[in-house]
Amino acid sequence: MAYLIPTEFVTKMVDSGESKIYMSTRDTLIRAYMAGAILALAAVFAVTVAVQTGSFLLGSVLFPVGFIMLYLMGFDLLTGVFMLTPLALLDRRPGVTVQTILRNWGLVFCGNFAGALTVAAMMAFVLTMGFHTEAGPVGEKLAGVGEARTLGYAEHGTAGWLTIFLRGMLCNWMVSMGVVGAMVSTHVSGKVIAMWMPIMLFFFMGFEHSVVNMFLFPFAMMMGGDFSVMDYLIWNEIPTALGNLVGGLAFTGLTLYSTHYKTAPKRHLSNLQTSSGMVSAK
To answer: How far is CA 64 from the centre of its chain?
Structure first.
């Protein structure tokens, strides 16, 4: 499967972060739009499988197909650029600044949201025959998530908000591992396996992904969910996005960068011999 060693794929991570900063506005928006749309459709697929089979595990096993498709096509998720672009800043790549990183994040957010919203509208129409029938068990399941993951957290106040934040951190720890997984092999089969494992884990554990939520909550509102846009933003999207940022960067980006790219000085042989002699003398 042509596995690349960590020093090689971490270099690709930094290069990728730099390339996303320099990407044109048009290309950034198109790639983000398609990523949001594909991931939203994958969420519908996974929930459909879970509802029809009664097995959420099976739905979780199959959900990664959307993530894999979008990354093989070179599209971008907000959770991925959260982890990659700051590495180019740390490496002092020319032209990479805090402002250019924030610009990239803003464009990817808008593109992801537009793509997810498009699929939400399409699926709401499809499942209700143009809003003339009930949405059925799949639609009801998707719609129910909206209230549970906004008002359900709000009932617990600060503890609820922190719970979303931590679930967002745990989510992008795994999702960013999936992003890295796309770089660890030069063969499609190797990329698929490396991406599949962490994405399946995050979905089954019910962690919070900001882009998946860009689909779930607008869809739930179209289905008549009893919560407001502010409920969605304050009690899900904002803490989820912040948790995604911290988790992906701290647990994946910075750890790989610091130990495989900017490694600490190695111990010298003379020091090892001195230490060995001291131990022998004792």
So the answer is: 11
